[in-house]
Amino acid sequence: METAYLKAFALVVETGSLAEAARRLDVTPAAISQQIQVLERELGTRLLGRAGRTVAPTESGSRLAERCGPLLREVDSLKGWISQADEIRELRIGTINTALHSLLPDALARFTAEHPRVSVYIQSAMSSELYDAVKRSDLDAAVCLHPPFSMPKAIAWELLRQEPLVVLAAERDKKADPHELLRTRPLIRYDRTLGGGKQADEYLRKAGIAPSQERFELSSLLAIAMMVDRGLGVSLVPDVASPLTSALHIAKISLPSEPEPRRFGVLWQRTSPRARLIGSFLEQARLAAR
Question: Edge-to-edge, what's the strand order for the sheet holding 250-254?
């Protein structure tokens, strides 16, 4: 049912005149009459009758007129609400700490320049927690590690960066044997509850490396890099690309046998109502990852 026809009908009832309703809507009286006839056919009843020189609603017309006002106001309100969809929005992004300290600030700088009126909520957590939050629609997208299981088709994931394991050591040790460093220097462990930490622990076991001393274990790759810079030990971590470590006097030493690299990317629901914004964020994240 055309809301424009309901508006014409309401004006006829309000003014008591087809001609006056036509004047206000800037159409011909014949067009108004035709619209009323369409409504009558759709509803299966007469809506207007003659009363002298004016027209008046029938009993059915009066019942329709009672509903027209609230209905048309609701339609106008709905149009206004929908028209705001591209003006003011919120995007909820989850992230692992690695991305928060590397590519995410650049991606967000590009994204907010393109969408200055969109507010961005950021939640930092472990990859498994971020996956669950996206699946529950608590988050729109997440920058996280690829889940260690098959994902349902409703969930999409795109690779942004691969990070092989490297030994972080003092700059003066950049030509040293990485296995010898791991055996003889104090080890600063990457948290073994995290994907990269588990991967590092598995590598040490498979290589038969037993560190002489384990000094710290923590979840911040940035803090680990700073501790190596201060001479507190060496570490086996994913090779992150963070501008925050560029001023540190540390070396990244490749391993003699490279294990599967850590992979992280963007995770989102394919049918998200914020798909356009997610797509825009993903494009900026791609550029930042390069």
Answer: 235-238, 165-170, 250-254
CATH code (residue 190): 3.40.190.10
**Could you tell me whether strands 187-190 and 214-218 are parallel, antiparallel, or unpaired per DSSP bridges?**
parallel
Cα dihedral sign for 174, 179, 180, 184?
positive
Report strand pairing: 165-170 vs 118-124.
Answer: unpaired
| Phi, psi for 15 (deg, rounded to 5) | -95, -20
Q: How many domains does the chain have?
A: 3
Q: Could you tell me which of 58, 5, 53, 57 has the C-alpha nearest to residue 33? A: 5
**Residue appearing with tokens 């294990």:** 259
Compute the distance between CA of residue 275 and CA of residue 262 in angstroms, rounded to an integer: 27
- The pLDDT value recorded for residue 89 is 79
Domain of residue 114 covers 89-162+263-289
Q: Quick one: average pLDDT of 232-249?
A: 88
C-alpha closest to that of 213 among 234, 238, 194, 227: 234
pLDDT tens-digit readout, 10-62 = 888 888 888 888 888 888 989 888 988 988 888 899 988 877 678 888 898 88
Instruction: Say whether both 79 and 215 belong to one domain.
Output: no
Percent of the chain with pLDDT over 70: 96
Same domain, 177 and 253: yes
